[in-house]
Design a protein that fits this description.
A five-stranded mixed β-sheet has the order 3-2-1-4-5. A four-stranded mixed β-sheet has the order 8-7-6-9, with helices on both faces. The chain contains twelve helices and nine strands. The protein is about 40% helix and about 20% strand.
Length: about 300
């Protein structure tokens, strides 16, 4: 007889972690959030955030957390790095089952209900993925900060702060956009900005994305957002040049950047059916169904 009582879907990125707690049949009991758990920020930090998020979800549901009765489905940024994935699995608590995939895959599962389709996940980082009718998954982009992750929050922030740098020494106007960026990073001069830059990681750069979006009428920002839209379209076309599959923009920047996607591709976009955390819950259900004596989870 299986000891599975709970399915847990975990969506872990560079900015935060979302947890969906379900019963053994996958019905949602509670949802919670915690700090970042993207593997690039460290394995110990990832498990700390997952632990905090799970404990918060169980507390909302009014039940005690017992890892041995849980099957976890994790969609994590950085899970495609074999060394990080191995270290993550090694540090796992004594759970009944553990399935780990990239957050792109769980975003696909959530956005299209497990059916064929394309997603572009836009958050701290970015990645595109396509699931075909045979269940094969292909990826586009997602090579990581700072060289890749086009149109992501970190990508936008990295380029925006360069404008603020130029504004500080007169190469660009010290206008409202530049001042808003400097205020966000608590910099008042060259030296204080350099202090921020020396400590900044992808999460810090992504924190500038709201400033970018708030100044969308600014000439520099308009050009930057137009380029972001082009990069999104390139990922979609690379994965489905025929235009046959439905496409969803996902993540915190999915909807804000929708308007900047070129018309020829934007007409293909549809709203995601569910988010990556619920896709991870579906992943947990699949893993539970593989366990001996757990036929009740085979949905």
């Amino acid at each position: 007889m299986s000891n599975v009582s709970y399915l847990v879907g975990i969506d872990g990125g560079g900015t935060g972690t979302r947890v969906v707690l379900g019963n053994a049949h996958g019905a949602t009991l509670a949802q919670a959030s915690a700090g970042p758990s993207g593997l690039g920020l460290g394995i110990a930090r990832a498990w700390q955030s997952i632990d905090e998020g799970c404990r918060a979800a169980f507390a909302q549901a009014g039940v005690a957390l017992d890892w041995s009765r849980c099957v976890l489905g994790c969609g994590l940024a950085g899970a495609n790095n074999p060394a990080w994935l191995a270290a993550f699995r090694e540090k796992a608590p004594d759970v009944a089952g553990l399935a780990v995939e990239s957050d792109a895959y769980t975003t696909l599962l959530g956005a299209h209900g497990g059916e064929a389709g394309v997603i572009v996940a836009l958050g701290t980082g970015s990645i595109a993925a396509a699931l075909d009718a045979g269940g094969a998954c292909r990826l586009g982009g997602g090579f990581g900060f700072p060289s890749g992750d086009e149109a992501s929050g970190a990508w936008l922030g990295l380029r925006a702060i360069a404008y603020a740098q130029q504004a500080l020494d007169g190469r660009a106007p010290l206008d409202a956009f530049a001042r808003a960026l400097l205020a966000r990073v608590d910099a008042t001069d060259r030296d204080s900005l350099i202090v921020w830059l020396c400590a900044a990681n992808q999460t810090a750069y992504a924190s500038l994305a709201p400033v970018v979006l708030a100044h969308r009428d600014h000439a520099f920002v308009s050009t930057l957002l137009t380029l972001a839209g082009v990069e999104i379209a390139k990922m979609i076309v690379a994965l489905d040049a025929s235009g046959a599959l439905p496409v969803a923009l996902c993540g915190g920047l999915g909807e804000p950047l929708r308007a900047w996607v070129p018309d020829a591709v934007r007409v293909r976009l549809r709203a995601p059916l569910a988010d990556s955390a619920h896709g991870a819950l579906r992943l947990a259900a699949r893993e539970a169904a593989r366990l001996p004596g757990n036929a009740a989870s085979r949905t």
